[in-house]
Write a structure and sequence with these properties.
heterodimer, A: alpha/beta, Rossmann fold, six-stranded mixed sheet, 10 strands, about 40% helix, about 25% strand, globular, B: mainly alpha, ABC transporter involved in vitamin B12 uptake, BtuC, 2 domains, two-stranded antiparallel sheet, 16 helices, binds adenosine-5'-triphosphate, binds magnesium ion
């Protein structure tokens, strides 16, 4: 579904990604793990076109997208939940969700999806007329995920959904990620610090070290790998 | 409520103001008779005045703090601000609105031509304020060179009339379009900048336009400007000066109404929501598929359109344009209107424009002190009501559910 071929991305003169190549298959959950500053967020930013790569190719369903602008990429069905949530603090919860459907015109479908995300996160329905900035961190994360779902993406890019959340809420969110993957048949690209949980929900995983992919395998195999255990699972 | 410390501080502040205003209020030099008059009594007034003002301000702030604390502890109900209570109660705002409309419609009949003329200027600033409000208030792009688009409109009318004999009504839309084009031209390179950088570049752009007009003699007739610009016509009817001013007044009223209508529609439209969202969080907007550049450009272009059209009206009103009318001060005043009115608030901007333009006129009675008073009003406003006269009540909308 998605393929990165030797992607190099720079911030000014600093190279953040070095020849990243990876594949995401239709319907799977894939995870990218790595230390702070490894370039995980940058990988997602490159895919979604917010920080376009300097070299290399990104193909979505066989079509090159690395030269498209961010809004065109969203229109193709790739939606990102940026690291740190980035909800609109002064818009109400309902308006935040509506912004997610910004590119859509099918009012019936939007209403149906709104219902769906409210059923995933009932707390959002209760809070729908409150400003997004008044939500707790976990609720904001739920809002950010829901907002992205409102775009009805085929590929959902999730950047550290567990950041700053209590373990219980984290588990709940991961459960819902799996549910979205199952029920909506949404392919999910998950970036996580919490490698343990990420490898539990994912089908396959890639390991990123200072801008390079150093390993990739089935999630179970990675969890069993001694190096991964030592470096990322703290075993 | 008032402590000894407050009193001490008030004394200190009174002393400071006495020193500060000493040259202005106490010494009076008469260069012809070569005498200096010392007006010591003024010192007393300044001292006493600032002492009392400070105490009044302290009391007001203290009471507000007490109220806020009680609200936080759940002891008192949060009272919505006065502006909101008025705006959300039809029984209050309907008669107010009707009275306002009647007043403005009857204005030329009630007041002298001189007053009407001032009111026309004020109405022009209302439209300018509403235009800039789109850019600064709604989309959050700090534009310090807004006057450039105003100049584009004014010179469009002056030059097109001079060379091609085009009339007011033909140039009005052309001026708007031309300004929008300039907005887009300027927008393309600068909109990737943010905040302070955008402000500086737009400031530069405003100055460049003015300098071009000042120095390119063959094109714009330089500092001496262009005169004999015709006033707006009405089916070729000959009008006396008084009549044409009245006509212009009603034209401006129509223009203001039109602007309010359009701006209101824009703010509540898809693009309006995109502007608002863009002001809140750019990365989120991009992630949601909002075309950042295009959204900013439309804000810039639509804001500029109003300046262009008011520019045409300005040229027609004064029948004369020169670069001196388009200095940075103009941009600053229009920006003041937006900030003072309350970013993004249409009602606030209208009130602020009327106050800011009419106040200095009617303060002429205090001639030499009027700018001082004007400045003081701005400072006091920003200290006590930084959110503006009418804090923006954004219409939150209900999203359809199944
Ligand atoms: N806006 C930026 N400007 C300059 N350098 C940046 C910028 N954002 C990231 N970098 C650099 O790029 C590299 C990769 O950053 P990235 O944010 O992708 O890391 P990450 O893997 O997401 O880390 P974390 O787990 O802490 O979120 C880092 O060395 C970082 O310093
Ligand atoms: Mg990151």
């Amino acid at each position: 579904m998605l393929e990165l071929r030797e992607v190099c991305t720079y911030y000014g003169n600093i190279q953040a990604l070095r020849d990243i190549s990876l594949r995401v298959e239709e319907g799977e959950i894939i995870t990218l793990i790595g230390a702070n500053g490894a370039g995980k967020s940058t990988t997602l930013m490159s895919i979604s076109g917010i920080v376009p790569p300097k070299r290399g190719e990104i193909l979505f369903r066989g079509r090159p997208i690395h030269e498209l602008s961010a809004d065109r990429i969203v229109a193709l069905g790739i939606c990102q939940v940026p690291e740190g949530r980035h909800i609109f603090p002064d818009l109400t919860v309902a308006e935040n969700l509506d912004m997610g459907a910004f590119l859509r015109r099918d009012r019936k479908g939007i209403a149906r999806d709104l219902d769906y995300v409210y059923s995933l996160f009932p707390i959002l329905r209760e809070r729908r007329n409150q400003p997004g900035g008044n939500l707790s961190g976990g609720e904001q994360q739920m809002l950010a995920i829901s907002r992205a779902l409102m775009a009805r993406p085929q590929l959902l890019l999730l950047d550290e959904p567990s950041m700053g959340l209590a373990p219980l809420v984290t588990r709940q969110i991961f459960e819902i990620i799996r549910q979205i993957n199952r029920e909506q048949n949404t392919t999910i690209f998950l970036v996580e610090q919490n490698a343990n949980l990420a490898l539990k929900v994912a089908d396959r995983g890639y390991v990123l070290e200072t801008g390079r992919i150093t390993m990739h395998d089935r999630a179970g195999a990675l969890r069993a790998n001694r190096d991964v255990q030592r470096a990322y699972l703290g075993i | 409520m008032l402590t000894l410390k407050d009193l001490g501080k008030a004394c200190l502040i009174a002393l400071w103001f006495v020193v500060l205003t000493f040259p202005l209020m106490v010494i009076k030099v008469n260069p012809i008779d070569r005498i200096i008059t010392w007006r010591w009594h003024n010192m007393l007034w300044v001292g006493l005045g600032s002492f009392l003002c400070y105490l009044a301000g302290r009391i007001w702030l203290a009471r507000r703090d007490v109220r806020l604390r009680r609200i936080r502890q759940g002891l008192a109900e949060e009272k919505p601000p006065l502006s909101r209570r008025i705006l959300q109660n039809p029984a209050i705002w309907r008669p107010l609105l009707a009275a306002g409309v009647l007043f403005f419609l009857a204005f030329p009949a009630l007041f002298s031509t001189y007053q009407t003329n001032i009111m026309i200027t004020a109405l022009m600033y209302v439209v300018l304020g509403l235009g800039l409000n789109i850019v600064v208030g709604v989309a959050g792009l700090l534009d310090l060179g807004y006057v450039a688009f105003y100049a584009v409109g004014a010179y469009a009318y002056a030059l097109l009339n001079l060379h091609f004999g085009l009339g007011f009504w033909t140039v009005l839309p052309i001026g708007g379009l031309l300004a929008a084009t300039f907005g887009i031209l300027l927008g393309f390179p600068v909109l990737r900048l943010r905040g302070d950088y955008l402000a500086i570049v737009t400031l530069g752009f405003g100055e460049i336009i003015r300098l071009i007009l000042e120095n390119w003699n063959e094109f714009s007739h330089g500092p001496s400007g262009i005169s004999n610009i015709p006033r707006p016509g009405l089916f070729g009817i000959q009008m006396s000066l008084d009549q044409s001013i009245t006509y212009l007044y009603y034209l401006m009223i129509g223009m203001v109404t039109f602007t309010i209508f359009v701006v209101n529609r824009l703010q509540n439209s898809r693009i309006g929501r995109a502007w608002f969202a863009l002001r809140e969080d750019e990365i989120a907007c991009q992630a949601m598929g909002i075309d950042k550049t295009r959204t900013k450009l439309t804000a810039f272009a639509l804001g500029a359109t109003w300046a262009g059209m008011v520019g045409v009206i300005f040229a027609a009103k004064t029948t004369f344009v020169n670069p001196a009318s388009f200095t940075f001060l103009e941009s600053a005043i229009i920006l003041c209107i937006v900030v003072l009115g309350g970013m993004g608030s249409i009602v606030g901007v209208i009130i602020a424009a009327l106050v800011l333009i009419l106040l200095p006129e009617y303060l002429r009675a205090f001639s030499e002190y009027r700018m001082l008073v004007f400045g003081a009003v701005l400072v006091v406003m920003m200290v006590f009501r930084p959110q503006g006269i009418v804090a923006n009540i954004r219409k939150t909308y209900q999203v359809e559910e199944k």
